[in-house]
Amino acid sequence: MASILTFLGFTSGPESTNSDSIQQIAAALDSMDSGRARYISGFAFVLSRLATADQVITPDEARLMERLVQERGDLPADQAALVVEMATRQQRLFGATDDFLVTRELQRNASYEQRLHLVECLFALAAADARIRSEESDEIGRIARELRIETADLSRLRSQYQNLR
After folding, report:
1. Residue 155 belongs to what domain range?
2. Higher-confidence residue: 37 or 8?
3. What whole-number distance in Å separates Cα of residue 153 and Cα of residue 2?
């Protein structure tokens, strides 16, 4: 198995891992440009990271993740569903190892606007059941820090969902 770092362009070094989360997901997107496929894969993985923060992915959360991936990736519904399913499976298997690696790669390669949009999607996902749980809010904060989202931007996004805590 190739490591996530190898897939993302890092072929050696002390931080190598045996996880191939993003590579597995991106393989489902093989007709896309590899950079775009990696972004969509990372986007789906981070959504899955948040969705599993409270240990339960509700049907509403699953549908919303599929819709967000479909819209962000300009994918057909069935392909978006496959990407979300794979991302969720990979996140559950390798999340502890890959969570930081994936967000670090997104931080390096996605624009600030893309990263900000991802955090906005995380808030929408957390609010899918009309309530943002403390585990979800904490995880959004961790992800936002890893993505180097400015505090003022995070506060602005959080305030839009303040009444759901």
Report:
1. 4-164
2. 37
3. 36
- Res. 95: pLDDT tops 60: yes
Compute the distance between CA of residue 154 and CA of residue 58 in angstroms, rounded to an integer. 25
Question: Left if phi > 0, otherwise alpha if psi is -120 to 50, otherwise beta: which for 110?
Answer: beta
Q: Which residue matches tokens 């919303």?
A: 64
Largest CA distance in the chain: 46
Q: How many helices (H) and strands (E) does the chain have?
A: 8, 0
Lowest mean pLDDT among 36-50, 83-97, 128-142: 83-97
DSSP one-letter code for 28 = T
* Angle at which helices 77-109 and 112-126 cross, to 10°: 130
Q: What percent of the chain has pLDDT over 70?
A: 81
- The CATH number linked to 54 is 1.10.3680.10
Residue 110 pLDDT exceeds 50: yes
What is the domain count for the chain? 1
